[in-house]
Design a protein that fits this description.
By secondary structure, the chain is mostly helical. Helices cover 75% and strands 0% of the residues. The protein has 9 helices and no strands. The protein is globular and about 50 Å long.
Length: 206
């Protein structure tokens, strides 16, 4: 119980720190060739144009239709999409912490999160603006997290949601999702008969 309480507290801290850290970059930088292109093409989708027919799309359609849906709900706003990325990054950091906690202690699991925060600064302005990569990484992490819940509990609903998250990963960036799918297939083929959950989790990460 004490260990679970520590995990919950540190998870909240990770999410909160990630929010405030992301706000440092919130209104800085713009990359017209990606951010401007995605936003302008999402606007065109809102007006009835169709991706791949009227609009050139270079990856899976998820990011364009997600942005178009946000625009439909809340209106067209650059600041709004930046806020979406702030929340998305913070959720990704939380998932990374939760996944890491399956292998190492709650305190040591903060190290991968720290490296992620440093990567955000080094990769600036990538990750600061709406982009398909960040959505694919988030749903990929979510799929891994749900897979680990399935291994821990044996409840098949987690396996279903892990597959759903994998599908969403593919919908944002096909290569990321396909690599993850191949990893899951290899996991089932080569470690399906083993009962050692820790072994299977390590195999998943590899």
């Amino acid at each position: 119980m004490r260990k679970k309480s520590l995990f919950a507290i540190l998870l909240f801290v990770v999410f909160s720190v990630s929010i405030f850290y992301s706000l440092i970059f919130y209104q800085k930088g713009i990359v017209m060739i990606e951010e401007g292109q995605i936003l302008s093409e999402a606007e065109r989708i809102c007006k009835g144009e169709v991706l791949y027919r009227d609009i050139d799309g270079f990856v899976s359609p998820g990011v364009w239709y997600t942005v178009a849906f946000i625009f439909k709900l809340f209106g067209q706003s650059l600041n709004l999409t930046r806020w979406v990325m702030v929340v998305l990054f913070s959720l990704t950091a939380g998932l990374l912490y939760a996944i890491s906690s399956h292998f190492i202690s709650s305190w040591k699991a903060l190290v991968p999160v720290f490296l992620l925060l440093m990567h955000k600064a080094l990769a600036f302005p990538i990750g600061n603006f709406i982009n398909y990569n960040e959505f694919a990484i988030f749903f990929g992490f979510l799929s891994l997290f749900l897979w680990f819940l399935f291994l821990d509990t044996g409840k098949k609903r987690y396996l279903f949601f892990a597959g759903t998250s994998l599908g969403l990963t593919i919908s944002f960036k096909q290569t990321t999702g396909i690599y993850l799918f191949i990893g899951f297939c290899a996991l089932v083929l080569f470690s399906g008969k083993r009962k050692d959950n820790k072994y299977r989790k390590i195999f998943t990460i590899i």
